[in-house]
What we know:
This protein is α/β, with parallel strands linked by helices. The chain has 13 helices and 14 strands.
Amino acid sequence: MNRPAPRAGAGAHAPRKTPRAAAAAVLLLPVLLAPANPAQAEPAGGGGCLGQDGATVEEARVTGEVPREILDRSGFAASVDRFTRDLCGAGDADRAAAVVERHGSALWRAAVDRVRGEGAAEGGLSAGDDRPLYWARLGMASALHRWEPDFALDGEERAALVADLDRRSRGHHDADFSDAEEGALRIVVTGFDPFGLDADIRQANPSGAAALALDGAVVETADGVAVVEAMLFPVRWRDFGDGMVEEALVPHYTGERPADAVITVSQGRPERFDLEAHNGAWRGGAPDNEGVGEEETVPVPEGVPTVTPQPQWSDSSMDHAAIVGETDGAPFPVFDNTAVTEIPEGGTEEVVRPDGPTPGSQARAGGGGDYLSNEIAYRNTLLRDATGRDVPAGHIHTPVLSLGQDGEVTDPAFEEERAAIVGQVEEIVAAAVRP
Length: 435
């Protein structure tokens, strides 16, 4: 990726965060309590509070056979059921907000704990899988959109509840380094949701798996011990246009304890890692997880640190040569990708430049393409420049992670490849924090 697309980590210590077992327990109820269709969950005692309409295109997919199987086999189907029961029992807007806060935060912690081996990995799906979190979040969001409360709730209030659930269950409220030891380096790592689901509903995203595996981890770098805080982002243009990236990352550039590196990660092309050197201010408009998209300049929201006039290009400040030299390239080679697509100054036709953009050119694709991976890389490095922070900031594209053609939701080769990718992401992240 997040280019629209036609192995566990070594060296990480235990997380520094205090495990929130009580919160996770809310999510990890026995699978037998879950209804057959988590998106249509009804509250205990009958008299359901959910209507038939309101779910987004993305949320509607959760009713399919594969998403239900992933939720059942991971134990996360019960989390959607429990959320819906509590939501249906909320008698006013304040209680509903408390339900959203509690379950959104607990879902993120349960997903991280499951991947990092801190919680029970229920069901037959491996602990390292990023998909249970994705489908559980969508099941909860669908319930919120279809909820018919007994009190007045306008569209703006409902949207605020959905947004809070979304951000909390992505780790955005959790990435504060409050548990980091004094003197430890602070690294922010981001990943993405699965995408391309209309082509194959079984899709996973190794960048999401890597983010979950690294959240709260302590890694050894060339400059000492570093603590990682991770978060996930959706594959939706509208959230980026609304400022979700800036909202999540600005505190790590301007706060009292700013990050020492901010590294974005997504799935790229088969059999290789790419370190993207140049990011372009252009959206190619490929359909996102809601089936929408149009070609346009990357929109920068008002009220956030930025560079004016808006630059066509923003570059990585990670030391790509050092990273390539310090990682052994196994099992996948690591490349410093300097190519871009531009319209040269005074020209009208697109030109591919293998060595980066030329002065005065208009961006049409960064090294990472013209989809949301390029956009998060552009927004991140633009924030770095706007806030004057001299820290490593850049983008890693992982190899493509794919399943066999037999229709199964997992298989041994898939699990092995994901673990290898996650482990190599950790090595690259550690190498990116240079002395």
